[in-house]
Model the fold of this input.
Amino acid sequence: MNGIMKLFHIDMKTREGTISGVSFLNIAVNLIIALFKIVVGALASSIAIISEGVNNATDALSSVLTFIGNKLANKKRDAEHPFGHGRVEYLTSLAVSVIILVSGAELLIDAVKLVIHPEELKISYFSLAVVAVTAVIKFLMGNYTIAQGKRVGSDGLEAIGTDCRNDSFISLTTIVSALAFLLFGLSIDAFAGVITSVMVIKAGYEILSRTISELLGQPVDRELANRLYSEIRSTEGVLNAVDLILHNYGPETYSGSCNLEIDHDRTVGEIYDVLHALQLKIFSEYHIAMTFGIYAVDKDSDISRKLHQQIADYVKEHEHIRSYHAVYFDEIKNRIYCDLVVDFEINDFDAAIRDFVSYLQPFYPDSEIMVNIDTEFVS
Done:
């Protein structure tokens, strides 16, 4: 294995190296296990054992695709792809899920045929021992792969590890069917093959669903959002941070935006150095190219405190309004600004704005009320 690592210049201390190295390990283990199970299954005329062997072979192919995808995803960014090639990892995960689904469907068809037209089962305690030993290996391999995936933030490795560990549980089905035949003469192998293939299809569907969700765009991870909000809100001159949005261009590449509440008496020149330093810090620590928007706010005047309290009372009485921000009373233009953050139960934003304005207008009959509706982009 060390020779392979050197041949392909794999450094297990880096994210790219970890993904490549663990993928290689999975390829080797799965190919060996697949060969054992297919041979043993053929000798025993066991569709369940053969199904597991084929599934292990597809696992090896999945690891190959993960390795290739990792290499492509780490290509340097260029003029056509200024955000890099990180999303290639999602495309390889998509391909892996399709392979698993097709393999599961084919195994299901074979198992159903065997249910309809049973064949004589030949199995021994030796073949049963092979399945049991490989199940233990797959369980340990799955846990290791998942742990490495979590460590480097690789959905691909976590998917492979989960599938690998699930295979060990699937093997229990094969072991049970084999014991039923050896001890009681009951041939439930075909039904075990059906169960195994259904679980393979389920694993493929889950990976497909997760990958499509990544490509369509998911909410910002709550833990990451909390760290970013904490970092930004602790910055001198920033009163509050809201409306965090992140666009994912791969596991470690983001562009994002966040709106900041800044005291209305501060000038652009005063706040520029602080925000520029904050942008550099976030990019260095989180690999996020962050853009900031600014809300001017006044939290010290009597009329501002009164306005905040009135809006807070309104929000408290409306369960689908989660929070508010960017409150500002422009006394020169006699205009009130406010953003309301709503959940996805509210579909008619115009109606929500009208309801809020009808509540607030009586308090400020001569003022123009400017309301913006936001949704939460954090999970």
Q: What stands out?
A: The two ends are 40 Å apart (CA to CA). The chain has two domains: 2-216, 222-375. The chain has a mean pLDDT of 84.
